[in-house]
Specification:
heterodimer, A: alpha+beta, Rossmann fold, 6-stranded mixed sheet, B: Rossmann fold, Ubiquitin-like (UB roll), de novo design (two linked rop proteins), 3 domains, 5-stranded mixed sheet, 4-stranded parallel sheet, 18 helices, globular
Chain lengths: 581, 476
């Protein structure tokens, strides 16, 4: 078994000294240094120690992946440190324990470093009173429009009000009114009255997205988040500000007023818009997807994702999805079609079959295709999809699983180098059967402008010589896809497949991170997960064992594909495992 | 009888004294700098050498000089916190953002004797290995900025500034930076943010202590105008001699800004603690007494954010008796010596040494509403308690002074104010905006209750009974 698979992306750091502190009377050992928002080791703060002690400290402005600001004051706690005598030695209680000098002033847990012997008190009457005070301050000018607010149900103002707030308001003055429904940019709407001015959006945009686009104007209670006049807030990461906004101030134009958050089912998945493979949550209800949100994964995307990837979900719900199994244009059944295809493949002379797989397929599906390839002695390839990259998350490889296609042997180090050979084979009549998965071969060399809705991200599929005329020469063209296109029109067999959101599987990202994703919604009509019908097909053609579960299939693949040796479906966890690529 | 003692303002108001360098030089200007630059390394008993700058820093410690900006923190101690091992440049900033209502002392120095400040700054820079210094001047003082720029030009021309100052090899540059009109820029970390070109949001401490992570994340000293001027005199006199001025732990002189209902409002320089509030208000050398026929009602003793003192209040002051034992002496508020420690013992502070006198013509609720409006306008809005609390208090007070009060407003206001200070905010503005409210309420609560109750009575007469019920219901 190979030892290539690791759960860590970086080599183990040198051991960090541990220190003992007490949180609400309970002693715990915590590292003296902990990675800060940028990954740099910095002195552990009270809030991090409390987190390790499993003690909740409410907070608005603090975010583990953003620079510390310390402005909301919600995380104020009381604390004490070992008292020192005039000789600078610890003063002891009669029972031999160190005497603790309680600080007369509270401290913000988010920014105050811990020290050995420190005691942190998060539940004292004073702390309770301070939290009440902060919540009261945050609410006096808040519009309290929860019934029409998109954040309701996932709002920190609501949650902390229940946990730490007061049941009544004593505020009798007129509220401060601020701009509402402010169009900050193409994807973001601001309600300044709901804003609690925690500056998370400003810090994310400035320090993570490196776009100093947001700031605060005016003074005091009139403070308002704003962009520079005439400068829209339109970088490719703006929607992350909606995620970090603890209240309903920043909302996504795409999601607002679409669905109450508490109705959404959240499914762990992976973004497929590029080879970065950001961990995401799919929010769906009644087989409809309403949004993608990033899911924490320090090995891939931290807590972020790009706007283009986030909004690239609508094609899944398109009305013209392939829903029927078609045999020469006629509606058929899976049993009939798969039997026919199996028979054809079994009879195909060696070397007469070619397979064009897609680097949008899962590792398991590609591995099953590789079984067919081996049995049939087929030539295979995949299609490259290249676009623009950035320095944060976006990868220039727009396929989510090129590494999977390569590691399972469905294509070579460079995708597309066999396409000419396949075209030649068809031209010369040597290749009579072509299996195509998830690729519209006829759409080649198109510019980003005319791409269909499925490809909302700029991408260029490189020129190749597989034309409609050439495909017409084939005896058998077997196509599996999700949306109809020129190639599915030419196909003798159309096998309707699933979007990633409709099935389970794994992708291998550009760094070799193998991540699994779960099923969020049902596929429409007769569409089936490719791995399901592929293993029927593989069984029919090769006689290989069936793996009726994705777990079994993955584990078998991990045994057979050397790069995946040692992996198991279970061990992938929620954030995946990095393999050597 | 208490006398003025003019150290800082020795020349400023002398007939014929002008702010130009020639006039300053005629009065022995820049001699202290020459003296400071010429200090020779001193051998210590343990074989180590104390450099000239180290000796000046030591002397400032010995002098007992406390910050004149408001907090009264030991200047020598502040300098000793500076991280000198970081390898980063050390900056010095003169805080000339004099904005505390009632305070008008720094502008006297800047307008009348700018070279004294510059000399004090150069010496302070030399003592702290500073190569670049800034004077952050309040935006509303354009004339002061002009005068300072002219003075810097003159000092450069005489090689008191620039490269190789007076042939000693020491380089120093100095710039004037004008604020844009925000009180919060007087808070040292807010000032630093502003100087960096940002919104003057005070920084969180820890970790951003200026002495370690100040301007451009480098060690930085921020000192008040008057404090820096004092450094010049410490070098001239020697720290021990300087410490003889004033009273123990309250050394030197202070320029007191006296305003309000006295006959002779103005600025008076005194030895710290050598005059009582009574003397400052009533002596002919100082305030000259209240307006005829008026009684004293209250004193705000250290700038508008300090806690108010009510006429007739008594305090127990710690004093040493003949045998040196510490005893408590009951002291009337007027008999408080005007220094840092006595006012602290009386639960208030000498702050920026600005005394605001209020006689019995003052509507105390209106007076607080006025202060509160200022603080609501000047809160930067960074942190929650101050941002929301300062405006809330102001709205309540404006209601109370515009006939819309309730008898319960005094308690209501007190609870709002209690949610702001005591380390709940990033900077001391939280205290600055809530202390006046807390202290006015503590000492004049009856006036607040009476005003609210009178409003309620009047409204009850105006409104018929059923309507009143509706109103009350709306309030709940």
């Amino acid at each position: 078994m190979s030892t290539a698979a690791t759960t860590e992306t970086k080599p183990a750091a040198p051991a960090i000294e541990k220190i003992k502190v007490k949180v609400d009377g309970r002693e715990i050992e915590v590292p003296r240094l902990i990675a800060d928002w940028s990954g740099k080791l910095t002195p552990t703060t009270m809030i991090q120690a409390c987190e390790l002690a499993k003690t909740d400290v409410p907070h608005y402005c603090w975010h583990p992946k953003l620079p510390i600001s310390g402005n909301c004051r919600m995380c104020l706690v009381e604390f004490g440190t070992p008292a020192l005598g005039p000789d600078r030695k610890p003063v002891m209680n009669p029972d031999g324990t160190p005497k603790i000098a309680k600080s007369p002033r509270p401290a913000i847990a988010c920014a105050t470093p811990i020290s050995p012997g420190m005691e942190i008190y998060t539940k004292t009457p004073a702390v309770k009173q301070m939290r009440e005070g902060v919540l009261e301050s945050l609410l006096i000018n808040h519009p309290l429009d929860c019934p029409i607010c998109d954040q309701a149900g996932e709002c920190k103002l609501q949650e902390y009000s229940v946990d730490y707030g007061q049941s009544q308001s004593r505020f009798v003055e007129a509220k401060v009114h601020k701009p509402k429904a402010v169009d900050l940019g193409p994807r973001i709407m601001l309600d300044a009255e709901r804003c609690i001015l925690c500056t998370r959006c400003i810090r994310f945009t400035r320090d993570v997205a490196h776009d100093d686009a947001l700031g605060i104007i005016n003074r005091g209670s009139y403070n308002t988040i704003a962009t520079f006049p005439g400068m829209p807030f339109d970088n490719n990461y703006t929607l992350n500000t909606v995620d970090v906004c603890p209240v309903g101030a920043l909302t996504s134009k795409d999601f607002r007023f679409q669905m109450r958050a508490w109705f959404l089912k959240e499914t762990k998945s992976v973004c497929t818009s590029c080879a970065t493979g950001c961990s995401i949550l799919i929010g769906s209800r009644e087989e409809k997807i309403y949004r993608y949100t990033p899911r924490d994964n320090d090995a891939v995307n931290a807590s972020w994702m790009c706007d283009a990837g986030r909004l690239n979900y609508k094609w899944i719900g398109r009305a013209d999805r392939l829903k029927d199994v078609l045999v020469r244009g006629q509606k058929s059944t899976w049993t009939a079609a798969l039997n026919e295809v199996s028979d054809k493949l079994k009879q195909a002379p060696a070397g007469s079959v070619a397979i064009i797989a897609s680097a949008r397929q899962t590792n398991e599906e590609l591995w099953l295709l590789s079984k067919l390839k081996a049995k049939l002695g087929a030539v295979s390839d995949s299609i490259a999809r290249i676009g623009a990259a950035d320095k944060l998350l976006v990868c220039d490889d727009k396929n989510p699983n090129f590494n999977g296609a390569r590691l399972t042997g469905m294509c070579f180090t460079e995708a597309g180098i066999n396409l000419a050979q396949i075209a030649n084979g068809i031209e010369q009549g040597k290749i009579t059967t072509l299996i195509v998965f998830g690729e519209n071969l006829v759409k080649h060399g198109v510019s980003a402008k005319v791409l269909g809705e499925k490809e909302t991200i700029s991408e260029v599929v490189e020129q190749h010589s597989l034309t409609a005329e050439l495909l017409a020469k084939l005896d058998t063209l077997i196509v599996s896809d999700i949306l109809p296109n020129e190639t599915t029109k030419l196909a003798h067999y159309v096998l309707p497949g699933c979007a990633h959101a409709e099935k389970r599987g794994t992708f291998t990202n550009t760094d070799g991170r193998v991540q699994k994703f779960m099923k969020a919604v049902e596929a429409p009509g007769d569409a089936r997960a490719e791995w399901e019908f592929l293993h029927d097909l593989v069984h029919n053609v090769t006689g290989q064992n069936r793996f009726v579960t994705i777990e079994g299939l993955f584990n078998q693949m991990a045994k057979e594909v050397s790069a995946f040796n040692g992996l198991t479906w279970q061990a992938l966890g929620d954030t995946g495992v990095t393999v050597q690529i | 009888m208490a006398q003025e003692y003019k150290l800082i303002l020795k020349h400023a108001d002398a007939p014929g004294y002008t702010p130009d360098i020639e006039c300053y030089l005629r009065q022995g200007g820049y001699d202290a700098l020459k003296k400071a630059l010429a200090i020779q390394p001193k051998d210590l008993a343990d074989g180590k050498k104390l450099s000239g700058p180290e000796q000046i820093r030591e002397d400032v410690k010995v002098s007992g000089l406390r910050g004149r900006g408001g907090a009264g923190f030991s200047c020598g101690l502040k300098w000793s916190f500076v991280d000198r091992k970081s390898g980063k440049p050390i900056y010095l900033i003169c805080n000339a953002d004099e904005s505390e209502p009632g305070t008008f002392k720094d502008r006297q120095i800047i307008h009348k004797d700018p070279h004294q400040l510059i000399e004090g700054m150069i010496i302070s820079c030399f003592a702290n290995d500073v190569k670049l210094a800034y004077i952050y001047i309040r935006g509303e003082m354009p004339e002061g900025a002009k005068i300072l720029n002219q003075a810097l030009k003159e000092a450069r021309a005489k090689n008191f500034l620039g490269k190789n100052i007076l042939g000693t090899g020491y380089d120093l540059e100095m710039h004037v930076h004008r604020g844009a009109g925000a009180y919060i820029c007087g808070e040292e970390t807010g000032l630093i943010e502003s100087l960096e070109g940002k919104r003057p949001y005070p920084r969180i401490k820890p970790p951003y202590f200026p002495a370690i992570l100040g301007l451009w994340m480098c060690p930085t000293i921020v000192n008040n105008v008057e404090t820096l001027c004092n450094v010049k005199h410490i070098v001239t006199m020697g720290g021990a001699e300087f410490a003889k001025l004033g009273t123990p732990n309250n050394t030197g002189t202070r320029i007191v800004s006296l305003s309000g209902h006295v006959k002779r409002p103005g600025y008076y320089e005194i030895e710290v603690g050598k005059a009582t509030l009574r003397e400052l208000l009533y002596d002919k050398n100082f305030g000259g007494g209240l307006r005829d026929g008026r009684q004293l009602k209250a004193i705000i003793p250290g700038g508008s954010s300090s806690k108010v003192l009510k006429a007739g209040e008594k305090f127990k002051l710690k004093k040493k008796d003949a045998e040196g034992k510490e005893i408590l002496v009951e002291t009337d508020m007027l008999d408080l010596p005007y220094d840092f420690d006595s006012l602290a013992q009386a639960g208030t502070m000498s702050g920026s040494s600005a005394i605001i006198v209020m006689d019995d013509s003052v509507d105390i609720v209106k007076a607080l509403a006025n202060l509160s409006e200022f603080y609501a306008h000047e809160s930067c809005g960074q942190c929650t308690p101050c941002r929301e609390g300062s405006l809330w208090m102001n709205k309540t007070l404006q209601r109370l002074t515009h006939g819309e009060g309730r008898a319960s407003d005094a308690d209501y206001l007190g609870k709002i104010a209690d949610n702001i200070p005591g380390g709940r905010t990033i900077c001391a503005f939280g205290e600055a905006c809530s202390w006046p409210v807390q202290s006015f309420l503590a000492k004049f609560k009856d006036e607040f209750v009476a005003k609210g109750a009178a409003d309620e009575d009047r409204r009850a007469k105006e409104v018929s009974a059923p309507e009143q019920k509706q109103l009350e219901a709306a309030h709940h």
